[in-house]
């Protein structure tokens, strides 16, 4: 596969995020809905992934969000999947079910049409958090556009969200010492 300018940008960004993650002594788990595990797959190819990437949950349906991450199905049916509370719960569920010290969640609508709850194409919620720390949640409305273009923007924004939460961990210090909690990164495969 030949790398296009857009894919080179994403690959470079993924490598930078993985370097920051490993330099800070953190490890990562993702919980992805609309991105379908793409962020985790991308990061798996970055240098250092074998030491710092625990894996990811691809949780596209409400039922899978409930089964894999422990989000109550009645809540998902009541408020929908594309909500800030759900993104926060995705981070919390991923951290509960993993030894990782950092979690990233992405839920939204990439199209080509609105979702079953009436959320418009381009509405995406990102959440990231450190173990035992607050979860930072952000809603973005990218607007309607080509699904591939939107997917590209979502992945780039998810990587930026990860950089931001890593930086917060470096500043705060309380969650930086991952090894003391028994969550040190382990070799891959």
CATH classification class = Alpha Beta
**Tally of helical segments:** 7
The chain-level structural class is alpha/beta
User: Helix share of residues?
Assistant: 40-55%
CATH fold name, please?
Maf protein
The secondary-structure element order is HEHHEHHHEEEH
Cα gyration radius (Å): 16 Å
Question: How do the strands line up in the largest sheet?
Answer: 2-1-3-4-5
Number of domains: 1
Number of strands: 5
Largest sheet: 5 strands, mixed
**Poorly predicted tracts of residues:** 173-189
List the main descriptive attributes of the protein structure presented here:
Maf protein, alpha/beta, 189 residues, 5-stranded mixed beta sheet
Walk me through what this model shows.
β4 (123-130) and β5 form a beta hairpin. 44% of the residues lie in helices and 17% in strands. It is built from seven helices and five strands. It is of the alpha/beta class and 189 residues long. It has a single domain (5-171), classed as Alpha-Beta Complex (Maf protein). α1 runs parallel beside α7 (147-172). The radius of gyration is 16 Å and the shape is globular. A five-stranded mixed sheet has the order 2-1-3-4-5, sandwiched between helices.
Q: In short, what is this structure?
A:
With 189 residues, this protein is of the alpha/beta class. The chain contains seven helices and five strands. Strands 2-1-3-4-5 form a five-stranded mixed beta sheet, with helices on both faces.
Indicate the topology.
Blueprint (H helix, E strand, L loop, with lengths): L4 H19 L4 E5 L5 H7 L4 H4 E6 L3 H8 L3 H7 L4 H13 L5 E7 L14 E8 L4 E7 L5 H26 L17
Parallel strand pairs: 1-2, 1-3
Antiparallel strand pairs: 3-4, 4-5
């Amino acid at each position: 596969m030949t790398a296009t300018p857009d894919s080179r940008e994403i690959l470079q960004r993924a490598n930078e995020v993985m370097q920051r993650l490993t330099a800070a002594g953190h490890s990562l788990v993702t919980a992805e809905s609309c991105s379908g595990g793409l962020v985790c797959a991308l990061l798996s190819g970055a240098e250092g992934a074998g030491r710092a990437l625990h894996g990811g949950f691809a949780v596209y349906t409400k039922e899978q969000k409930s089964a894999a991450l422990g989000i109550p199905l009645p809540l998902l049916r009541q408020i929908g999947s594309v909500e800030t509370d759900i993104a926060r719960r995705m981070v919390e569920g991923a951290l509960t079910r993993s030894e990782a010290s950092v979690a990233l969640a992405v839920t939204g609508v990439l199209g080509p049409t609105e979702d079953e709850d009436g959320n418009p194409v381009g509405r995406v919620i990102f959440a990231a958090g450190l173990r035992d720390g607050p979860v930072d949640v952000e809603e973005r409305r990218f607007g309607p556009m080509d699904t591939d273009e939107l997917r590209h923007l979502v992945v780039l924004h998810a990587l930026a969200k990860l950089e931001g939460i890593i930086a917060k961990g470096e500043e705060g210090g309380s969650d930086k010492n991952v090894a003391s909690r028994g969550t040190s990164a382990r070799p891959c495969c």
